[in-house]
Amino acid sequence: MDLHLKDKRALITGSSRGLGYATALALAKEGCRVAINSRDEAKVAAAAKAIAGETGVQVIGLAGDVADPDIPERLVGESARAFGGLDILITNAGGPPAGSFESFNEAAWQNAVDLSLMSHVRLIRAALPYLK
């Protein structure tokens, strides 16, 4: 299927495995240049190599934890510099660890909010100038 994504530029966070990886691979198969992200540098490098090898498109791997307030802006900036802009942003992040309500302290709750909500807000805010 041709979704007219050839040569579009995308950043997909949380994409070294699972749904994020599948999304990045699907975009790359459509000819989209993709920047993928993971907290683990070795995993994101391996995933980028696998997607590039399967699709032949430009793929960059960017390590960083999107729950860290400084990382979303860096990821967007590095992606835009590498590709000369950004057309697509897919915000994806793994959820907080499983457990009972009372098992989490204040820091764990704050990390969950930063990961599950604020990472998306920060990524969109950073990418919006490119996406307009």
Structure description:
- The protein is of the alpha/beta class.
- The protein has four helices and four strands.
- It has a four-stranded parallel sheet with strand order 3-2-1-4, with helices on both faces.
- α2 links the parallel β2 (33-38) and β3.
- α1 (18-29) packs parallel to α2 (41-55).
- It is globular and about 50 Å long.
β-strand percent reads: 5-15%
Mean of pLDDT: 95
**Approximate helicity band:** 40-55%
C-alpha Rg (nearest Å): 15 Å
> Reading side by side through the largest sheet, how are the strands ordered?
3-2-1-4
Q: Would you count the extended β strands for me? A: 4
Helix- and strand-based class? alpha/beta
- Report low-confidence residues grouped into runs of 5 or more: none
For the sheet with most strands, the description reads: 4 strands, parallel
Q: What is the first-to-last residue Cα distance?
A: 26 Å
Overall spatial form: globular
Which sequence of SSEs, written as H and E, runs from N to C? EHEHEHEH
- Count of helical segments? 4
Short summary:
By secondary structure, the protein is an alpha/beta fold.
